[in-house]
Amino acid sequence: MHTITDSNLNRLRLMHLVSPSLPLGSFAYSQGLEWAVEDNWVKDEADLLQWTENLLQTSLTHLDLPLLQRLYESCEKKDLERFNYWSRYLSASRETRELREEETSRARALAALLPQWEIQTDAAWLDVIKNNHLSGYAFVAHHWQIGIKQAAEGYLWSWLENITLAGVKIIPLGQMAGQRILQACIEQIPALVKTGLSRHDEEIGHSSPAQAIASSLHETQYTRIYRS
Description:
Layout: H1 6-18, H2 33-38, H3 45-76, H4 80-93, H5 97-113, H6 123-129, H7 133-143, H8 148-170, H9 175-186, H10 189-196, H11 209-218
Helix pairs in contact: 1-8, 3-4, 3-7, 3-8, 3-9, 3-10, 4-6, 5-7, 8-9, 8-10
């Protein structure tokens, strides 16, 4: 009878944490992409690839990943004050109401799963976890002993898969177009993770004006499918 080693279990836990079947409502968000398609900023496969690559290489790499690292390290050190600081930093960095509401909604959904996973935490930590999804993601990754590099890779992959699927549905594109976009972007992930996890505190942050404008306009878009 074969037993599952710790490293194998950690890898399986990561797959669970980034699974699109996790009831966080990730499928309900396009992060401004729905408006970008509506206004013909993103019209085809090439446009969607450019949109996705740009966000991966900028805000995801220079904001989300270094903050994931600091949130994870705060869990390692049991430093609630630092955990709260970086959690609020992320929330303040989300540039529109929709993007902030997405973070909070997904965070609360993840927090509701903790008892089901038999992950115990006190009220003070739970309050911070409910601020944004990235905080809860870091907390669970640390609890399950998923390494920070693997957690960062999983986080980028989950975002990439969700945004690509949204684009394929909205434009619309064929499934093979989506697979070509995933293939082109996934090859960049190792280098982006290396860059994101090497940022100093003063280097953290990035503005994405096109996404912010699209997200803001999406808030009043008359006909829409996605919540952001």
